[in-house]
Amino acid sequence: EDSARGSAMGGGGAAEDGLVAGWWIKDAEEVASSFPAAAPLLRTPSWQPGFSPLVTSIIGGTLGGVAVTALGHPADTVKVRLQVSPSMTTVACLKQVLKADGLPGFYQGVGSPLLGQMAFNACLFGTFNATKRAMLGASGASELSNLQIFAAGSMTGMASAIVETPVDLFKSKMQLQTLHQEAAALTPGGAARPDFHSTWGCVKFVTKNWGLRGWYQGLSGTILRNSVSNGSFFLSYEASKKWLMRQSHVQEATPAILLMSGALGGFACVALSHPLDVIKSALMSDDLQKRKYHGIIDCANKVKAEHGFAGFSRGLLPSLVRAVTGNAVLVLTVEMVRRYLT
User: Fold this and answer.
1) What is the pLDDT of residues 168-219, one digit of tens each?
2) Is 168 helix (H, G, I), strand (E, B) or coil?
3) Burial track 173-188 (b if 16+ CB lie within 10 A, e otherwise)
4) What are the tens digits of pLDDT across the range 230-260?
């Protein structure tokens, strides 16, 4: 399996793999010596406070959530618009956002994911590491198999849907309201009065009209998407990190290894689950009073009937950009925090 992975990533055998890995993956001490200012960030500190693994996972996930949101929200804004406007191209979407709101338009609805990603990633990494420890304890093995890692990631994703669904819902409704306002402004009579002007206003609007039930619109789609996306992410991340560490002959993953394995995990996450994300977005954008979709199967059938199989790839490019860059930074942040706090 390892040799197959090596061939897939460039071929050529162990010597060539080692050469490639050695060129890309520098030891943390070498990086630190090349960039003195970065040395304190890359070296394991002599002083260690000794927090528990659960606490470090929560803190790392929280800080990672801030980094992911700051880096990935613009791509997410484009993705949501493309998924609900199938006739729009990526370039046309970028131009529309810039023309209507300038650069701040790409951060429309950022309040919900900023707070939510902090809670979501804290829950995600805390639950995943707790699940791994429980599985190891039950099996008595020294490490989990690939199937067990995928299962742990899937269970983590399904559990985290409780936190992620409201976050995605409010973010999507903020982004979609802007899109609808822009479309209405082009029709006779001008734009209609917006239902809300902020993330908090959106929360109050949904709660007033539909109660807590409105917070969990699209929950079934989120659970299904997360079971695949999180299982794929953690499996790809863990497997690629181990392979890269073996090729570079290190006992602890360097920052470069963490960035690359996080990026590969993000790519696998989106590539394997994007059709399910399209369904989830459609369910969340549906009108609660005049339902267009009646469940996951009905939604999938209607997307296919209206747009063909191509409809399930809408917004794929910005999703990949967001996942690759965001998850690379996320795992680096989580791991660096873990090393400093344990």
Assistant:
1) 888 778 777 766 666 555 555 555 567 777 778 888 988 998 898 889 999 9
2) helix
3) bbbbbbbeebeeeeee
4) 999 999 999 999 999 999 999 999 999 999 9
> Six-digit token pair at 190?
């001008």
How far does CA 93 lie from the centroid of its chain?
21
What is the DSSP secondary-structure string of 185-248?
Answer: HTSTT-PPPPS-SSHHHHHHHHHHHHHHHHHTTTHHHHHHHHHHHHHHHHHHHHHHHHHHHHHH
Q: How many residues does the chain have?
A: 342
| Average pLDDT, integer, range 306-328 | 88
Which residue type, as a one-letter code, is found at position 192?
A
Task: Flag whether the pTM goes above 0.85.
Answer: no
* Distances in whole angstroms, Cα of residue 38 to Cα of each of 43, 239, 262, 272: 9, 28, 21, 36
End-to-end CA distance of the chain: 33
Cβ atoms of 64 and 121 closer than 8 Å? yes
